[in-house]
Amino acid sequence: MAANVAVRPSLEEVSTIVEAGRNLPNAPNLIPLCASVSSEFLTPSSIYLKVAANSKLSFLFESAATTETIGRHSFIGADPRKTLISGSSHGYEADPLPRLDEELSQYRIASVPSLRLPSMTGGAIGYVGYDCVKYFEPKTKRPLKDVLGVPESLFMLFDTIVAVDHFFQKVMVITYLHVPLKDAPKGALEKAYDACKKTIADMLRTLKDPNLPLPPQGPIKLDQEYTSNIGRPGYEAHVHKLKEHIVAGDIIQAVPSQRIARPTSLHSFNIYRHLRTVNPSPYLFYLDCEDFQIVGASPELLVKADQTTGRIINHPIAGTVTRGATPEEDQRLADTLRASLKDRAEHVMLVDLARNDVNRVCDPLTTRVDQLMVVQRFSHVQHLVSEVSGILRKGKTRFDAFRSIFPAGTVSGAPKVRAMELIAELEGEKRGVYAGAVGYFGYNTVDTSTGEETEGAMDTCIALRTMLVKDGVAYLQAGGGIVFDSDPGEEYEETMNKAAANMRCIEQAERLHWEEQQEGGKLGTEEMVEAQNGVEGENGKRSERIYEARFITLCFSSLSACGGATLERGTIGRGPSFQFDLGQLRLRAGIWKLSAAQSITHSTHQSHRVLRHPGLLVTPHSIRLVSDSLLRLSLLLPAVLALFDITSARLPSLGNKDSDYDGDDDDKMAKDDKPAADPRMMSVTPRIRYNTIGGVNGPLVILENVKFPRFNEIVSLTLPDGTERSGQVLEARGSRAVVQVFEGTSGIDVKKTKVEFTGHSLKLGVSEDMLGRIFDGSGRAIDKGPKVLAEDYLDINGSPINPYARLYPEEMISTGISAIDTMNSIARGQKIPIFSAAGLPHNEIAAQICRQSGLVQLQKEQQEGVNKGVHDDHDDNFSIVFGAMGVNLETSRFFTRDFEENGSMERVTLFLNLANDPTIERIITPRLALTTAEYYAYQLEKHVLVILTDMTSYCDALREVSAAREEVPGRRGYPGYMYTDLSTIYERAGRVEGRNGSITQIPILTMPNDDITHPIPDLTGYITEGQIFVDRQLHNKGVYPPINVLPSLSRLMKSAIGEGHTRADHSDVSNQLYAKYAIGRDAASMKAVVGEDALSDEDKLSLEFLERFEKGYIAQGAYEKRSIYDGLDQAWELLRIYPKELLNRIPKKVLDKYYQRQGKKETKDTKDGEEQSNGEAATNGEQNGGGEESLI
């Protein structure tokens, strides 16, 4: 299996990275490798259960706040490479951080720009207990009783983890390759790479295993007692004592706590599963430390080191109130919390303390309060939350920041040291994990291109709302901030409110598992249940347990009406159920037994739609009551419909047309075979079927008397010989549907062809594996390569970009053609067409752009002060999507041969629609290309160049379809809505806030009869942001590429060029070339009238410039790549034929810098953008890739 795993980076890339870093003083010795699969059938909990099944040490990190930037990933790991433990009874009683720092500093990760990895890719995962503060602040050390007997700190070091990307719905397996030493035997790197690849393959095999090894759960004992270590009297006594110290001026605030013990027979992971539901929090974690487990749902960040911004971040939380029963009450309580003088005083003190802690290690000028007293709502309480951040001072590390802030003021007090002394004296027992920190510390990263080393990431939360499970007892601990006006009784109640979520979690989890065990007994003996499950293990113990999902399903069955109402007792899945049929509408109520590996929706697969509502739970008792009377069940039906706002006409059918549910969907869903990336694979089961069609008109099929036709709905047509074709609803008006058939309408028998409406829109299966592949105009692979496994399915019509989130295009896309790059620069996210005409070499220009285009790499002299996060110039982040519409066979062969022979195919995805392909297919081809580009840009964060040729063929297809629909024609027979239709294509270019990628679009169109006023170029010009004009006169002169720069225009050029983008002189040089070329064209016209002898010397100079500009600057070999810096240097060579005083479009400062400078061209061995020294002698040099002499 290892050979089939798509692991990135490749062995070749790894070898390059290793060689690049060999001679660095801080040479990286770890390289991350990654493989991704869809998370469609995987959840963090199910992944953890599979990965940690046979491990003694493991972890799961999650977050309830899942957005693109916050809580986006969940992390899972098991079987750490090494474990670091500290504590009096664990052989190392000292500060745990120096040992952790020493261990992590032995490793450095090589940055791999082509990988988009989460901030955590491995490293040290674990906790630092509160009692470690005695090593950071020795004054706080007191003799304390160790009731819990757990280590003071524990960190597990992982080389392999699993990360779940909730935003892009994928699972990444990440492992580190340990770089062999220089004197390692030959082939050591290859052997290490293969070993890592096998590790990833084994992990993927584990994830795809349909069997889920659930935690063993013994008999449940309910309603066991909670025991506090001090009780209400003890806690109130602590409050009174601390208030005395506040009055005496010893402290301003302190945070005492009480610990509650609760015996439970629940497996600790079952506690976690329920905790994450009843108390969703920003930090959810489960750590299995072999002898004990830590289960937590913390609301509060302790300290985080953000690698992107370089800031140290701290979140003080203080001030608590319960949640309201209604939104109004919730808001009223929040307003009361904001107005509470006591809570505000407590919070302001903690914010001040946090600023002081951050200032101890950060530059005071960078320390700031980013948020102040914002109400943040959790499942059971509301808190006042602030954020303080700063940038570390030189010489300080993340460990210094951790020491400075640990423990948080919210669990200690102010002044912190004195408050901690008093807490230790009052409580007299070690707190253990509570009020400590849980999180991770990553390895440092080295950029092999610059040798720059970046300190590893750190993200830790405060161990609040945290339970320690050990020896059948769950330990909960909670505290509260005590200030001068604190009420002892209210403070005690606040600690109970904070512990309530965890207490309720245990009680509800026990009740649910107890009910399951009782209901299992009613259904039969354990042996019967095990026999049904078919998973009996050793000694009669089940290796898999079956959970119950209570539900009501509504299903629009495709079976014929049964002629009346019937009530049927039976089973759904493995539980009892009752079924009520009334015509085609079916209500089922029951208990569905399903594996915990599957969610309700997944277990239903294609046969049923499960509709869930928080207020609707069907138990065996309620089923019996309902089933006693058909009348009662029928009365329930309208209520259920109203509950979900569904009518029978709107009910979707996911049922199979020939079979009812067979109770075996669990086994069906165990299969994880992914379909190929074919858009028509999404047309699954029909919602409506018609045996005949009304008529055929050109590429269209007309259907009358259709029930609820939907615009853009996919239909499937079955011809009499069994051949299947696909189509899409082009028009839905009343009961009439007009369907465009992708494969054409020839051979369709109107009486015998069956049409099925699927209820789905056209979607394209997309994957990064589409790079380097060739597809036809309907999205099918035609290059005889392997199947493309779809990572996602996207609607080919795309999603409109929110104008508020659309970013202004900036940074330049290089085409390698000077007439474009220097004179009409293209910005990332711009849409700029190429206007050509029949017989002109627009196809050759398109192929050349594919060969040569890329991201501009700054010269060394330009790199200083540039934000690398903005100026992303790595080649691996650039891709091309090429859509060809209506091209002939010879042109399609030209494109494929050119891309393959010249090495550009590996970064190109090619869609080919031939001239003899169905007309309708031509309309969807550009949408398939743009959908692929949107996946690359917004999910893989690549900068994508989309080339679409020929848009004239596309518009002709629109005209043909419009004529078939007998629509009133617009200008020159084209449909009146062509402007709107073209907008749906061109407006999909752009950049979106929060995404690194971009889509730049170059549509190519041939102007009929060279007429720029024709509707196609005319409407295109209104929508796009400029044009590149391919000129017939230049072509007749033998100039290639024949780009006329005078009518050409890039409206967004200014945002893409200049200092920090290309070079400071770019704009001025471009303007001067444009002006001199226009003057030269005027001089040529004058020469034709009066003759050359009548021209002035300046006019003759302009004629010389005109000749050299067209033949030596615009003219460029088809395989000659010029960087933007080559183009600018050649422009200066050309402008030097003029005296300085005639270059009036260039400022004196720029003239002084560049006029005398002689630029040396780069050879193919020289990196684009290499710094060129002033005063260097002019030379013609070699051209990139060609070695031809310069024409200048």
Topology (SSEs and partners):
Elements: H1 11-21, E1 30-38, H2 44-51, E2 57-62, E3 73-78, E4 82-86, H3 96-105, E5 108-110, E6 123-128, H4 133-136, E7 153-158, E8 160-165, E9 170-178, H5 188-208, E10 227-228, H6 231-248, E11 253-254, E12 257-263, H7 268-278, E13 283-289, E14 293-298, E15 301-305, E16 311-314, E17 317-322, H8 327-339, H9 341-359, E18 368-377, E19 381-391, H10 398-405, E20 413-414, H11 416-427, E21 437-441, E22 444-446, E23 453-454, E24 458-462, E25 466-470, E26 473-479, H12 488-523, H13 526-533, E27 546-556, E28 565-572, E29 575-582, E30 585-595, H14 600-604, E31 610-611, H15 620-627, H16 630-643, H17 665-668, E32 688-690, E33 695-697, E34 700-703, E35 713-718, E36 724-733, E37 736-741, E38 754-761, E39 763-766, E40 774-776, E41 792-795, E42 806-807, E43 810-814, H18 818-821, E44 826-828, E45 834-836, H19 842-852, E46 854-855, H20 860-863, E47 878-887, H21 889-901, E48 908-914, H22 919-938, E49 943-949, H23 951-964, H24 978-986, E50 990-992, E51 998-1006, H25 1015-1023, E52 1026-1030, H26 1032-1036, E53 1043-1050, H27 1066-1090, ...
Parallel strand pairs: 5-22, 40-48, 45-51, 45-52, 47-48, 47-49, 49-51
Antiparallel strand pairs: 1-9, 2-3, 2-13, 3-8, 4-7, 6-7, 6-21, 8-9, 10-12, 11-20, 12-26, 13-14, 14-25, 15-16, 15-24, 16-19, 17-19, 18-19, 21-24, 22-23, 25-26, 27-30, 27-31, 28-29, 29-30, 32-38, 33-34, 34-37, 35-36, 35-38, 36-37, 39-41, 42-50, 43-44, 43-46, 50-51, 52-53
